[in-house]
């Protein structure tokens, strides 16, 4: 795995890439991609960072694993390639946006349009073996992405962290709440949403209200 990542991030994460755990992770990922079909494609593993430079980040959304179906994952959490049917969690995200701020349900599930506005769409685990959910967990990715969250918390101010579901909420301890804003809710997955834990959270309008108070450009969701 050749770490090709936006220079603004490399400056902050360069030391992480040299740590023993990351070298082991690199070898694991390289072997997996050689021996199995894995997602996203190798050039998209760090897409979340490439589409949202460090100094432009305003909002952080934390997912867990990339999608493990064909042609779905594009390196941004909850996002799928253009032309791919929207997975259930993404459907519920778009439904909440429509209810919350009136934006019509979009044709494309590709969230690069969010990332380019400063939304870091960060999966805790950046790779996965095809058709095998969680197959690359506990191999080092979580240590890396936890470091990303801590570095963002330390070296920036006024970020809006959207923590959806139990897994993401556990990341709150990595964030300095005196410098940043944390919004939590249930996960947009059908299991959580159908229990009334997702719909009505208004995270998209609330995020823009927070950004407005800081005189930052709003996100066009």
Automatic annotation (TrEMBL):
List UniProt keywords, sorted A-Z.
Answer: Cytoplasm, DNA damage, DNA repair, Glycosidase, Hydrolase
As recorded in UniProt, coiled-coil segments are: none
This entry's Enzyme Commission designation comes to 3.2.2.27
Q: Which CDD domains match?
A: UDG-F1-like
Q: Which GO terms describe its molecular function?
A: uracil DNA N-glycosylase activity
Q: Does the keyword DNA repair apply?
A: yes
Q: Which reaction does it catalyse?
A: Hydrolyzes single-stranded DNA or mismatched double-stranded DNA and polynucleotides, releasing free uracil
SMART domains per the UniProt record, alphabetical:
UDG, UreE_C
Active-site residues, as the UniProt record annotates them? 65 (proton acceptor)
Q: Has keyword Cytoplasm? A: yes
- Cross-referenced InterPro entries, in alphabetical order? UDG_fam1, Ura-DNA_Glyclase_AS, Uracil-DNA_glycosylase-like, Uracil-DNA_glycosylase-like_sf
Subcellular location(s) per record: Cytoplasm
Uracil-DNA glycosylase-like domain span: 50-211
| The family this protein is said to belong to | Belongs to the uracil-DNA glycosylase (UDG) superfamily. UNG family.
Q: What is the role of this chain?
A: Excises uracil residues from the DNA which can arise as a result of misincorporation of dUMP residues by DNA polymerase or due to deamination of cytosine.
PANTHER family documented for this protein: URACIL-DNA GLYCOSYLASE
Query: What is the name listed in the Swiss-Prot or TrEMBL entry for this protein?
Result: Uracil-DNA glycosylase
Q: Which organism is it from?
A: Croceitalea rosinachiae
Lineage of this protein's species? Bacteria, Pseudomonadati, Bacteroidota, Flavobacteriia, Flavobacteriales
What gene does the UniProt entry assign to this protein?
Answer: ung
